[in-house]
Amino acid sequence: MSVRLQVIALALVLSPSAALAETPDLGWMSGHWRSTEDGVVSEEFWTDAAGGLMLGANRTVSDGRAVAFEHMRIYTPPAGSEAATVYCAQPGGTPATCFALVSWEDGRAQFENPDHDFPQRITYSREGDRLTATISDMADTQVMQFGWDAVTD
User: Fold this and answer.
1) 21, 63, 112, 131 - which has most CB atoms within 10 Å?
2) Which region, left, alpha or beta, applies to residue 26 given φ > 0 means left and ψ of -120 to 50 means alpha?
3) Residues 6+ apart with CB under 8 A from 13
4) CB burial class (10 A; 0-12, 13-18, 19+) of residue 33?
5) Are 5 and 97 in contact (CB under 8 A)?
6) 43 beta partners
7) Quick count: other Cβ atoms within 10 Å of Cβ 80?
8) For residue range 77-95, what is the model confidence (pLDDT) as tens digits?
């Protein structure tokens, strides 16, 4: 990870203005999620938040071959900490880019990093057995949405 990225990630984690007073409950993200469209299968997996750490992975398969993957994590510091909960993503195994949790409610969490090129905002939401991730810039001029259904087998 470059020094610049390390400084940005550290600033996001240690910024008191980014810290939220409560520990977020993001357990609604846990599980195995899948979408299939035009023969392309996208899967997202999230562990529970044991120890304040959720681990996630995404894999996209087309014509029987993996064409994309991403490693993700959501870290919530111990209660009483001044650090913010952060979502860090590594698409294709690149160095992690981290986003601070700026808001959450039951079934919805929003993370932001205004200094990143794209995306700058990542929002996860769940309605019933459907998990949706929306990525955008801060002005919502570029928006992409991904959706998966719960896998129960």
Assistant:
1) 131
2) alpha
3) 77, 83, 84, 86, 98, 100
4) buried
5) yes
6) 34, 59
7) 6
8) 887 777 889 999 999 999 9
pTM for the structure as a whole: 0.84
Residue-wise pLDDT for 129-139, tens only, equals: 999 999 999 99
- The one-letter amino acid code at 109 reads A
pLDDT attached to residue 153: 78
Task: Look up residue 76 and give its two tokens.
Answer: 């919530």
Q: Are 137 and 119 in contact (CB under 8 A)?
A: yes
Question: Distance between CA 43 and CA 32 in Å, rounded?
Answer: 7
What burial letters (b/e) apply to 4-15, b meaning 16+ CB within 10 Å?
Answer: eeeebbeebbee
Per the listing, tokens 């600033």 go with 11
Q: How far apart are CA 68 and CA 51, in angstroms?
A: 29
For tokens 């014509």, what's the residue? 63
Q: What is the pLDDT of residue 2?
A: 52
Looking at residue 142, the DSSP 8-state letter turns out to be S
